[in-house]
Amino acid sequence: MNLAAIDIGTNSIHMIIVKATPKQTFEVLVQEKEMVKLGVGVFANKMLSEKAFNAGVETIARYVQLADEYGVEHIITAATSATREAKNGREFLDRLIQDVGLNPKMISGNEEARLIFLAVRKAIDLRKENAMVIDIGGGSTEIVIGNTEEVLFKKSLKLGVLRLFDRVGDQGQLSKPGQESLQEHIREVAKQAMEEAVLVGFSKVIGTSGTIRALGEAALERRDVNIVQSVNAEVVKIKDLDKIVGKLLGLPPERRTEIKGINENRVDAIHLGGLLLLELLKMAGVKEITLSDASLREGLIIDYLEKNGLKLGDIIEGKDIRERSSLLLATRYDTDIEEKKHVCNLALQLFDQLKDLHQMNIEARDLLQNACLIYDVGLFVNFQDYHKHSAYLILNGRLRGFNNEERIILSLLARYHRKGVPKKKHKVFKQLQTKERDLVRGLAGILRIAVGLDKTKNRWVESVHCILDAENIEIKIYGDATMDLEIWEAQRFSDALSNFLVRRVTVVKG
To answer: Is residue 430 a contact partner of residue 424, using CB atoms and an 8 Å limit?
Structure first.
């Protein structure tokens, strides 16, 4: 299966598309990066600018389109510092939900640190050593110490290239007093965390993120090291970094690209990132840093595979992309798959035995089967009104293999699997054509009874048998247990099917 991860960073927005296997391995298919600079001005006025806001949405929409072209079944999306701290950060994420169909997660600095370390651990051989990982972003810097088995320390500092840029106020040359003032500020913010990190102990420092890699590549270029595509596991001396940063601080922005390894997208704040990196390395007491091309986006993929790796085998066995996509959605929101398969079995028995009455086709049967797998994903959000949460997640969950109309029908089946029945006054239902409204009414009627027949979640009802006449439908249920609650619940929710088929429905023990 193909997965994608989008890192909505303060400086850049990245996407990676990978081909994953159940064994927690993956092959990178595509990497995309756009320096949107979402966080410019955020740390001064606490607002994403209109320009950055719109550019961010447009970039992510383009990424999603590319992911679709690669047949991606799930996009993991994480927003970091700028979105966390901007007053309109939630509005930005809501726009992504509404316009792009993503459900991004706003992660904490500590969670960002953990995910970055997961990626580095896969990219650098740590052996039995404790390593400190430093990731300098636009709005925050993550410090993590760990080894191949565990994370020992993690801290997110409110230090980043765009945050420092907002503090300085412009991208010009920094005077000596300005440099000293900024160094003092960095030491003040980082002092406690770095002292704690030193006490935990580490034998090497690894640097990741675009800022550190750019500075590291510039230092390697200075030594005529041949860089093919990206750097990973290359070691850079602090004294070489010091010379690069010194040059950057002495140049106006338009001349910073004269230093090999520094591109024009970074000239506004790379000198500030260099000052930050040097101070942290001095506080760590090291003379060199190992570069890594691992990043948050790889960490998102690894974390997903570690959490879902054992379940992916079952997902891949779905009969087609539609079933696999439904199973992925169910797994994503911690749904009990075996329970849903039991409900599905009962629902399809009802569908098949009532076929002469409802006259629905094989495509409708397929929609019912998929609806049975995902009707209660909203429980992940909240038990109260979870049927409505389910409808929302299904409609916005990027189910593969279904057209827009089918996704709407699936969301409505979740909406009406409990509580109220379909009514024309309901906005989304009202917008459907008559044929589709009848389809929802019929399938929801069957789903409501099938869900009711598993009231206690014990899977006691093993099979059903429908007896029909001109006015009645008698549903006999079979199983070894008492099943009184299942009969009561199924009868209570039989109203929708009774109204659709114009028959009185009764549920009895066989």
So the answer is: yes
Dihedral pair phi/psi, residue 238, rounded to 5°: -60, -35
Together in a domain, 138 and 221: yes
Condensed to tens digits (0 to 9), the pLDDT of residues 312-369 reads 444 445 677 678 778 888 887 888 888 899 999 999 999 999 999 999 999 999 999 9
**Is the domain of 278 the same as that of 212?**
yes
Three-state secondary structure along 134-166? EEECCCCEEEEEECCCCEEEEEEECCCHHHHHH
Is 304 inside a domain boundary? no
Q: What angle do CA 371, 66, 301 make, to 5 degrees?
A: 70
Task: With residue 219 as reference, give the H or E element that holds it.
Answer: helix 210-222
489 lies in some domain: yes
Long-range contacts of 182-186 (CB under 8 A, 24+ apart): 182/272, 182/275, 183/275, 183/279, 186/159, 186/275, 186/276, 186/279, 186/280
Of 125, 134, 437, nearest in space to 274 by CA: 134
Lookup: tokens for 117: 């370390």
Cut 0.90: pTM above it: no
| Euclidean distance between CA atoms 51 and 67, whole angstroms | 24
2 and 291 in contact (C-beta within 8 Å)? no
| Total of domains in the chain | 3
**At 61, which amino acid appears?**
A
